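INTERNAL AUDIT FORM
Audit reference: QA-55
Scope: verify that the stored structure record matches its stored sequence.
Auditor: D.O.
Record contents follow.
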Amino acid sequence: MIEIEGLTMRYGDLLALEELSLSIPQGEFFAFLGPNGAGKTTAIKLLTGLMKPTAGRVRICGHDIQETPLLAKSLLGYVPDVAVFYEKLTPPEFMRFIAELYEMDLARAAGATRDLFAKFALDEHCQQRIENLSHGTRQRLAIASALLHDPRVFVIDEPMVGLDPIHARTVKQEMKARSQAGMTVLMSTHLLNIAEELADRIAILNEGKIIALGTMAELRAKHEGAGGRLEEIFLGMVARE
């Protein structure tokens, strides 16, 4: 699970995130929505330990991301909006590198790699260097590598970047299935239809603050004049702010 308490981030005079507090329980599929500059990516970088907050704290399965980063990150899978690789490696070599980072049993890691490569249609690319892969193939490899160690918490920023409809469907099904099996998923996206389809709860951020939070049913009940669609609710909330 993810626990966020009073998370605040300043860049000089700019307040990018203001006292964000949120609890995301085990197995919940949670979505962050918001316009550009709302604070979504800042929040994700803080809760994955890539940046140190001005104030506040984040716990991953009870482990403070700043005080015990190795423990917290061992339970975390993270896919940024632009994934970074060792470009000269092949996909299997990269997966082995990830397995060694997490000190996985290599036989278990090899089996998990075979399963993930079959699921995400990566087998045909095993002999190519990552530098020669398409953007969509790289995105599928990034997701596979983040799932390799079977994380308890999975954070993904813009999951559908570069994916065609066939592979997007596979990724959606895999994330939802893992969430239903107990993995906590936090997704940030601009694609409102993806959030509406997948998320158990949704938070709308604007100017560093949560301006709406709840299930789709709860959001519809609070904003009856928006027509019931997440797009209408989102646009109405952001326009009022």
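Auditor finding: record pair retrieved intact. Strands lie at 2-11, 14-24, 29-33, 55-60, 63-64, 76-79, 153-157, 184-188, 201-206, 209-214.
Action required: none
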